[in-house]
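Lab notebook, bench 4. We co-purified these components, and the gel suggests they stay together. Before we commit to crystallization screens, I want a quick structural picture of the whole thing.
Request: model the full complex, all chains together.
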Amino acid sequence: MDPQRRQLLITTSVLGAAAGAALAIPLLSSLAPSERARAAGAPVEADISKLLPGQIMTVEWRGKPVWIVHRTTEMLAALKQAEAHLVDPGSTRPQQPDYACNAHRSIKPEIMVAVGICTHLGCSPSEKFKPGAEQGMAADWPGGFFCPCHGSQFDLAGRVFKNMPAPTNLEIPPHRYLTAARLLIGDDAKTA
Ligand code: FES
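Here is the predicted assembly.
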């Protein structure tokens, strides 16, 4: 290749790379704030339209798992059954917003929303929804969650049983319904 042509090719490549960089910078700077906001705890939306009774789904909010459980009529009845054995059945301690200070610890009785992190040392409890001994629990187990790390047990509203390592109920995050099927986790401005 003659030297003049080679120089032309080099110049074209350099200009092309510079133009690419100029395009990339605005794109990156437009993405960065939302990523930062997400990391800092922006609310997240959950579509619960396909969550059937008895099922659980998990969404991530502020790096934590948030459980959404569609409780059945039987599960709601089990909440009553567990009450005598719970540390804080009336949710008087500050693990939930005001609108979750009720027997079911939620806005709608059938939908539970809770942070899936054990209040002892932060392990992730497992779901043990079936009452009785079928899932390796005691025969009088009413259904709930079991923390495999040190054995804490929580009912189907995330309330801790007495004499467990975990001192308090699971945390209920701020949340509200955008529609019947869309939940916003991390923002309850119109609910509180
Ligand atoms: S971390 Fe759950 S019982 Fe210890």
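The domain at 44-185 is CATH 2.102.10.10 (Rieske Iron-sulfur Protein). Worth comparing against the SEC data before the next meeting. The longest strand covers residues 64-70.
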